[in-house]
Design a protein that fits this description.
The complex is a heterodimer of chains A (257) and B (395). With 257 residues, chain A is of the alpha+beta class. Chain A has 7 helices and 9 strands. In chain A, strand 2 and strand 3 form a beta hairpin. Classes of the chains: A alpha+beta (257), B mainly alpha (395).
Chain lengths: 257, 395
C-alpha cells in the first residue's frame, strides 16, 4: 500500500497570480486564456473573494460521491490519492456532475463524443514519483504536494505557529476527507466554502442505507407476495370445493326426489 | 385521386405529422450537432427535460402494469382482468420510449451496453439500469401471449402458451418486485443531491415518495388510455371497472398525501411551503394538481360515474404527476445549482415525438391484437353506454 499523497493549499499565502491555472492548461494543451469558473478546459481556477484568492479544484475525496454514483464505475479513487476518470468506460450519463457536493465535474457540451472533464491531480506524474503541474508552478508555495500525513502535520504546525490562521484544515474530515487540503486566515464559510450536506460523513452514505435496504425489501416483499398468492389460491380452491359440494348436494337431493 | 388524398387529411393526422417532422429534426440535431445545439443543458443543470419527462415520468406512468398484474394474478382481483393487458401494453410501450430516450440522454449512446458488463453496485443509477433491463424482459414475457395468440398453428400456440402459463406466477412476482424496486430507485437517484434539492422535495425517503406516487399516476394513465380506446376504437370494457380504478386512485392519493405530509413534518420542511419563493409556488401547483383537486373530485360519485369527468380527473392526476417529477428533476434543483434552465424546443419536440409514437403503437396494438374486449361496431353503442352509466356495456 503506497503512502497517500495530497495537495495543501494555503489561502493566506496565495497571491492570485494564476500560475497554477496556466500550468494546468499548458500541460493539457488547452487554450491558455483564463476562464472565470471551472470548465471542460479549466480544471483549476482562482476565484477572488474580497482580498483573498480561493483556488477551486477537485477535492479528490477519500470516498467520492462521483465514484459511487457512476453506473459503470468509470471514476475511481486510487491508492495514491487522485480520483481518476476512465474515459473508455464512461457512457456520458452525467450523474457524477449531479452527485458531486462541490460541483466540480464538467462536460464537453459542444463535442459529438463528449466526455466528463475534471482535475486528476496529475495522476500519471504522481505515479511516476513527480508532482502535479500546478504545485510545481506555484511561485510562493501556496499550493504544495506531498505525503498526506506529512502535509497534515505541516498544516497543523503552520496553524500553531501563526495565530492568524483559522484552526481548521478544510478537506481533512469534510465529507470524509480527501487529498486536497486547505488552510486559511479567513473563516472558510466567508470564502464560499458551503457547509456539506453530510458534514464529516462521506456523501455516498446518503444512498448506502437505501441501497442496503433493497435485499431486505426484496426478501420481505417476495414473502408477502407469495403469502398473498397462496391465500388467493386457497380461497379459489375453497370456493371451487364449496360450489362443487353444493352442486353435489343439490344433485343428490334431486336424485332422492 | 387528389380528393382521395385530401379526404384522408384530418386535424389529428396533421398534428401527428408536425410532431414527427419536428421530432425527427430534433433527433438529427441531437445526434449530428451535439448537446449544445440540441439542449439548454449546462454544467449547472446536467439533467434536464429528457431525464425529467422522458425517464422519470415515462417509467412512473408505466407503473400500472405491475400494479394491475399483481392485483389480478396474485391477489385474485379478477374484476380487473379486462384492463390487465392494456396496462401491461402501456408499461411495455412506456419502457420502450424510456429506452429510446436513454439513447438521447447519454453522451455516448453507442456505449448503451456498458452497464450490462461494467458494474457498480454502489450506484443507484446502475441499479436503475439493471432493473429496467430485467423488468423489460418480464414485460415482454407478460405481453407475449397477445402476440403468440396470433401465431399460425393451433398446436404450436397451445404448446407455447402452456409452458408460458406454468411460470407466469413466478414471473409476475419477479416483475412486481423489480418494478417496485426501481420505481423507488428513480427517487433514490436524488438521495445523493442532499443540499442541492430543495427541502420541500428532498427527503431521506424520497424513494418511497416516488414509489407511492407512481402507482396512482400509472392507474390514471391506464384509465385514460382505456377510455380513449373505448371512444375511438370498437372495444368495450365495463365502465364500472374504470370507476373502481378511480376510487383506487383516490385511496392511493390519500395515502400518498398522508406520507408526504408526514415526511415534510419529519424533515422540518413545512415552513418552506409558506415562503414567497418560486419553489413554494411549484410545490402548491403540484399539491393542487396531484393531490387536492383529484381527491376532492373523485369523492363525488357523479365524477367517478361520468366517463368524461373521470377522464378529466385522471388527466389531472397524470399532469400533476408530471409536475412533481419535473419539480424534483429541474425546478427544485436550479436555485442551488445556480442556474435557470428552460428546455430548448428540440428537447421538448423529441420527447413529444416518442410519446406520440407510443400512443400510435398502442392504438394499432388495440386494433390488431386482443388487448381490450372487442365489440362489433354499432353506431349507437357509445351513446347507449354514455346514457346509462355503462350498465349496458356488459351486455
Amino acid at each position: 500500500m503506497p503512502k497517500q499523497k495530497a495537495m495543501l493549499i494555503d489561502i493566506k499565502r496565495c497571491i492570485g497570480c494564476g500560475s497554477c491555472e496556466t500550468a494546468c492548461k499548458q500541460l493539457h494543451g488547452f487554450n491558455p486564456d483564463p476562464e472565470p469558473t471551472l470548465s471542460d478546459t479549466t480544471f483549476t481556477v482562482i476565484e477572488p473573494r474580497g482580498d483573498k484568492f480561493v483556488r477551486k479544484v477537485c477535492m479528490h475525496c477519500n470516498d467520492p460521491a462521483c465514484a459511487s454514483a457512476c453506473p459503470v464505475g468509470a471514476i475511481k479513487k486510487t491508492a495514491l490519492g487522485p480520483v481518476v476518470y476512465d474515459a473508455g468506460k464512461c457512457i456520458g450519463c452525467r450523474y457524477c456532475m449531479l452527485a458531486c457536493p462541490y460541483q466540480v465535474p464538467r462536460y464537453q457540451w459542444t463535442k459529438l463524443a463528449p466526455y466528463v472533464k475534471k482535475c486528476d491531480l496529475c495522476s500519471e506524474r504522481v505515479k511516476a514519483g513527480g508532482q502535479p503541474a500546478c504545485t510545481e508552478a506555484c511561485p510562493v508555495q501556496a499550493s504544495v504536494f506531498g505525503d498526506r500525513n506529512q502535509l497534515i502535520t505541516d498544516a497543523w504546525e503552520r496553524i500553531r505557529s501563526d495565530s492568524s490562521y483559522v484552526p481548521q484544515i478544510y478537506g481533512l474530515q469534510e465529507a470524509g476527507g480527501g487529498s486536497v487540503l486547505f488552510v486559511s486566515d479567513v473563516e472558510f464559510e466567508k470564502l464560499g466554502f458551503k457547509p456539506l450536506p453530510t458534514g464529516n460523513q462521506p456523501v455516498p452514505t446518503l444512498t448506502a442505507s437505501a441501497l442496503g435496504d433493497s435485499p431486505k425489501v426484496v426478501i420481505m416483499g417476495g414473502t408477502i407476495l407469495s403469502a398473498l398468492y397462496w391465500i388467493t389460491q386457497r380461497r379459489r380452491e375453497v370456493a371451487l370445493a364449496e360450489s362443487a359440494g353444493k352442486s353435489g348436494v343439490s344433485q343428490s337431493n334431486e336424485e332422492r326426489n | 385521386m387528389l380528393e382521395r388524398i385530401t379526404s384522408r387529411i384530418t386535424l389529428w393526422r396533421v398534428i401527428v405529422a408536425v410532431i414527427f417532422v419536428t421530432g425527427m429534426y430534433a433527433t438529427y440535431v441531437r445526434f449530428f450537432e451535439g448537446f449544445r445545439a440540441s439542449t439548454n443543458l449546462s454544467d449547472q443543470m446536467p439533467w434536464g427535460l429528457w431525464v425529467g419527462l422522458g425517464t422519470l415520468c415515462g417509467i412512473g406512468l408505466s407503473a400500472a402494469g405491475f400494479g394491475i398484474s399483481a392485483a389480478v394474478y396474485l391477489l385474485g382481483m379478477e374484476r380487473y382482468r379486462p384492463v390487465l393487458r392494456a396496462s401491461i401494453l402501456i408499461s411495455f410501450l412506456g419502457y420502450c420510449t424510456v429506452m429510446m430516450g436513454y439513447l438521447y440522454e447519454i453522451g455516448l449512446p453507442w456505449r448503451f451496453w456498458h452497464p450490462i458488463v461494467m458494474w457498480n453496485g454502489r450506484s443507484v443509477l446502475f441499479d436503475v439500469c439493471v432493473c429496467i433491463m430485467t423488468y423489460f424482459t418480464v414485460l415482454i414475457f407478460e405481453f407475449a401471449p397477445a402476440l403468440i395468440e396470433k401465431l399460425p398453428g393451433r398446436r404450436l400456440r397451445e404448446a407455447i402458451l402452456e409452458h408460458h402459463h406454468r411460470i407466469l406466477t413466478g414471473v409476475v412476482m419477479a416483475g412486481v418486485l423489480l418494478s417496485s424496486m426501481h420505481q423507488s430507485f428513480l427517487g433514490g437517484l436524488y438521495l445523493i443531491t442532499a443540499g442541492k434539492l430543495h427541502p420541500l422535495w428532498y427527503s431521506p425517503y424520497i424513494h418511497a415518495m416516488f414509489y407511492m406516487s407512481a402507482i396512482p399516476a400509472g392507474l390514471a394513465l391506464t384509465v385514460m388510455a382505456v377510455y380513449l380506446s373505448m371512444r375511438s376504437l370498437n372495444v368495450r370494457v365495463d365502465f364500472s371497472i374504470l370507476s373502481d380504478c378511480g376510487g383506487m386512485i383516490q385511496l392511493l392519493l390519500i395515502v400518498l398525501a398522508f406520507f408526504r405530509l408526514l415526511d415534510l413534518v419529519a424533515n422540518h420542511a413545512v415552513h418552506y411551503a409558506f415562503h414567497w419563493t418560486p419553489e413554494a409556488g411549484y410545490f402548491w401547483l403540484e399539491m393542487a394538481m396531484l393531490i387536492v383537486a383529484p381527491v376532492v373530485l373523485l369523492s363525488f360519485d357523479k365524477v367517478r360515474d361520468t366517463p368524461d369527468a373521470l377522464y378529466g380527473t385522471c388527466a389531472l392526476v397524470v399532469a400533476g404527476f408530471i409536475v412533481n417529477r419535473l419539480n424534483v428533476s429541474i425546478n427544485a434543483l436550479q436555485t442551488a445549482m445556480g442556474t435557470h434552465y428552460v428546455p430548448k424546443w428540440t428537447e421538448l419536440s423529441s420527447s413529444v415525438m416518442m410519446v406520440a409514437a407510443a400512443v400510435i403503437a398502442f392504438r394499432y396494438a388495440v386494433i390488431h391484437l386482443d388487448i381490450l374486449p372487442k365489440q362489433p361496431v354499432t353506431a349507437k353503442a357509445f351513446r347507449r353506454w354514455m346514457a346509462n352509466g355503462g350498465l349496458s356495456a356488459e351486455a
